[in-house]
Amino acid sequence: MRFRITSGYVHWGAALASVAGFHVAWREVTHKIADQVLVRADWPGFLDCARAHPWGAVDWCARMLSAADLVWWGVLAQLTAVAAVAAMAQWALRRRRSSFAPFAPWLVAALYALPTLSLGVHVWLLPHPPFAQLQLVWFAVFAGFLAWGWRGLVGFAALQGALVLLGNAAWGDLPAGETLESAWALPLQLAWDARSAAALLPFALLAAAAFAKRPAVLPPWAHVVPPALFAVLFVLVLPRRDCRDQLEMERAVRENRFDDALAVAPGKAHPERMETAWRILALFRADRLDRDLFRYPMPAEYADNPEDEMVMAGPLMLFQYGFVLPARRWIYEAAAVKGWQPQYFRLLGDAALVTGEVELARKYFAECARFPFRGDFAKRRLAALETVPLTTAAFPDLEEPFGMHGVWQGLVGAPGASPYFGNECVVDRFVYAHFRQLSNCPPAMLKMLFAVALLDGKPDVLKNNPNAMRALYPDGRIGPVFLEALK
Amino acid sequence: MTGLLFAAALVSMTPDYAGIAVPPNVAPLNFDLDRDAEVVLAGPDGASLAKRGRNIRFGLSEWRGFLGACRGKEYVISVKPLDGGAPLVATNAVSETAIDGYLTYRLIPPSYTAFDEMGIYQRDLSSFSERALYRNVQTSRKQCVNCHTYRQGDPETFLFHKRANDAGTVIAHPKYGLGKHVVQSQFGYAGRGAYPAWHPSGEFIAFSVNETRQAFHLASPQKIEVVDLQSDLVLYSLADRKTTTVESERKVFECFPTWSPDGKLLYTSRAVVDYDVAPSNETVRSENAFKNVERLRYGVVVRSFDAATRAFSEPRTILDPERFKVSFLFPRVSPDGRWLVVTAAAWGGFPIWHNEADLYLCDLATGTIRAIDEINAPGSDSYHGFSSDGRWMVFSSRRTDGVHTHPYITRFDAATGVFSKPFLLPVEDPVAHQRRFLSYNIPEFSTGPVTHSPRELRKVR
After folding, report:
1. Domain range for residue B110?
2. Is residue B66 located within the same domain as residue B109?
3. Complex ipTM over 0.90
């Protein structure tokens, strides 16, 4: 077959080059947008939202659109590249006729919404394989729209624009960012929106040129392939239940239903790291840590990317056991690198309460209250802060951290006796870096620390602290369980 | 209990701009109230401003006109809550003398080890304009930048450090141009020029060279401790780009240099330690430093300096830490050479993380020292600097929430050694400080905008 260079190919090359140029030029902004994705990642599922507030369902839908917009931003480079290929294939097939109406894109869109409805928006942001697989949904959506030719492209661009506008409207009250005055936030967003539209524009124009004289007619399989692709992925992803398990455990722990949390996938051979973190927390809160910790399987890959997945579970565990300053430090580090998330403000506010820094707590709760679905909690906290006289009784749910923080303060007493660690240590190595100094701490705390260390892939802390182990388990009954964990 | 009830009855103004001394060229002092109120600012000769609501903001032109009418006089600010609560009435004095027009600071999150974005910014004090001089995200390196310093407020003569990749000190000088200098340690360890002080001639810069470590309290009212494993003192000559040693005793730590206005005296914070500072094991070095940090106290010493020979005298103690049982840090001399303002902490060399840190004023003529109670507050009060004419001082404080550092400005009466009630750096939206989760680091006055563009500063290699 003879290959001819036509003006169409030249246009496509120019379009791809322009898109690539945009991405390079805006990479710094991309970085911040990625941070914002994380900021918006902490959303509950649709049913939770609907139950939480009369307008919860509506709000959830608005944020759902916003999330779609963000997913689009986050994978724009991949999308445009794949969509270009898809569009070229469509262009090559433009002489073929379709036998039925192009319903496929809407089917794809509906399927896309299902897991989000059941699991919450942040199912799309979990950093494990299903997330990457489900991103492909947008490829299918885009390709599906292309089945309508230039009208589809224009419609897709319009849909994206609407998502952007709705998303910005729903999230206009986020923290302004590290260095930008709030007045700059909107121009930046608009510039980004313009850039997104500009990235699509070449496709729209070229598709319009390609389809202007000959109508877009496709074979039946061109309509079927995108939804079929998604359906396969959907079938592959959902049975794994990883997302659902994690979310169910998190919800149960937060509602103090520890038995329910422990009942989630207890026999899974290779649990996710987050699942294990929530399980340890549930065991701890149910006072079953020493008895049952190693009855559950531990993740095989302890040290895989701990900070990403442990970003909340780690500090939360430390906080609940009275390690308030380490928990707070962990959050500060995460916020500096990843950007602010609403649950950061919540935990920092609670930490400030425990340390008696009321003004600081007020500041964090006030910010927390600006986030949808955090408002009720933050307002309760702010109202409790007005209690006169202000005592710990105003915060009954914080009884445990209050108590343990006090115990810990009493143990090490004067600031001079406080252990330190240097900046060479990674954040989440804090705990076991000081095991040798913990010989006086309560036995339950030691168990917790061992659990955290094991979770972090550091079984040597058990071997290196035989005295502490003997103090914990003087009768030696628990020994075989630890040995099993150390295998 | 009584105090709480009383506070609840009064209308609350945030920031507190009542009873202060106001520079005649400062930006509008916008503030937020805890309830709706009628606000009237009444000046002399019928000059007045009136607003209503909670979020009280003044237009730039009306504010400038009002301050112009009040210059050298007073105005009365009255806040009447619409709910009938007790009104707030106070008198603010508008100074005759203007404040230096610009304030430079670094904006960083109050993170502990990790950081992402940071930058050095310059704020026009007569408006709300904030300009980024250097943002690390504008380069591919995202390195730490710090220690920006002017030569007596001269915007054409300044420096700041870049760390990590492409490390060095960016120095701008009318005579020597803009370029990167590397002020190396003379002592065989990894430290480089850190805390700087421009000699008034602009020909020299005194640096302390510090090998620092950071550590974290597990449970304490404090949060962080920063200590030096070693710190020494060097003099850097811009003409020949050479470094000479001023102090290099292993068991003597010197840092935070500052010159007298005539350049004939160099003041520093100085501590003498008695523990082993040079064990072979790196971990033991750090542990030794942190175990002894509560006994680490800095005094203030002074050396005479001969610019012709670059020779220093032996140090003479101005403030003895053992006598006062505190650590004296960040010495700064007023432009008239009479007063020394210093930060005092219970111990250690990094007072910004010490809640008890306060500012003290030493009369160099008489040797007396006092806590500056009129400006100190609970929470760390630390880094400070005078304006070029010595009439104003800016200092860092964590009084708002204990974590985020904000710049406060106060008027200084050099004749009596008394400061006015300080006020928070004004911002357009008065609640912006509450929502900006950043610390203003090292506030430094300058008389004008930096003459080099951010692009020029970024291009320095």
Report:
1. 102-459
2. no
3. no
